Amino acid sequence: MASANLLALIDDIATMLDDVAVMSKVAAKKTAGVLGDDLALNAEQVSGVKADRELPVVWAVAKGSSLNKLILVPAALLISAFLPWAINVLLMLGGAYLCFEGFEKISHKFLHSDDASGAASNTPGLSSETTEMLEQKKIRGAIRTDFILSAEIIVIVLGSVQESELLTRISVLSGLAVLFTVGVYGLVAAIVKLDDAGLYLLNKSGGTVTQSLGRGLLLFAPFLMKTLSVVGTIAMFLVGGGILMHGIPGIESYLQQMTTNPLIQTILPTLASGFIGLIAGACLLSGWLLGQKIKG
Q: Number of structural domains, the chain?
């Protein structure tokens, strides 16, 4: 009798683990696009610091991201159980903040081109206190952005497992939260240290091939970081605008009915997300600046 109960328990555990694996695979596919944006944004956010501070900054943001998910996973489960309508409201607020932050970055670049604060933490002439202050500002900004993207990822995952049992939902959400954090910030660390790897290979006495590879990495690293900077800013509008667009009833079905071309049907929602994100960011920043002017 005891052995039969043990076998039944093992069978139940195996079934649950199989359900967790299947649901995790489905949820991971649905979050792939947001994860790409998360990678680009975080790599861009932690760039511009001193070479010896790159990994500590990545580690600090990764710890902040872990804390974000430690808060978001239980909160998402509680909200989905007691206040399911609040998830969309919170997502809309997060999407609006991403649009605002993206447009603020663009306006700062063009209106304050003589301000070197974007790369100030990598400027040798600054005092250690100023450098540390700017570094902490970068970390806080990256953690805030991660909070919004993590919230969207968790809500997408939650939507994929909403009909599953509570234990399956907890397992999938917790497992993917850990996996995504380790994966994203592991890749971010590799990206920001790409130039150091190139320099190591260039100085290594391993022959022409090794030195050529090192030289190639040194040339590729700045190009990659500049590309990620642009992609990261665009991602803010695409992700933020996409969240806002999902909250506007009927707009997605309207876009799908505008054409029967499969390629255009795929591209059009992305363009619409970017456009909505850009307009929303411009309106929010204008309102914020107006409020600051009235207040000041």
A: 1
Residues 158, 175 contacting (CB under 8 angstroms): no
- Residues with pLDDT less than 70, the chain: 1-38, 40-41, 44-48, 111-129, 159-160, 162, 205-207
SS3 label, residue 219: helix
Structural domain contains residue 40: yes
Tell me the CA end-to-end span of the chain in Å, nearest whole number.
78
DSSP letter string over 233-251?
HHHHHHHHHHHHHHTSTTH
Digit-coded pLDDT (tens) for 110-131: 765 544 444 445 555 556 667 7
Identify whether the C-beta of residue 257 lies closer than 8 Å to the C-beta of residue 224: no
Answer whether residue 257 is part of any domain: yes
Measure the CA–CA gap between 58 and 236, rounded to whole angstroms: 20
What is the domain range of residue 185? 2-290
CA distance 38 to 295: 34
Among residues 243, 249, 252, 248, which one has the least CA distance to residue 274?
243
pTM: 0.67
Query: For the chain, percent helix, then strand, then coil, each to nearest 5?
Result: 90, 0, 10
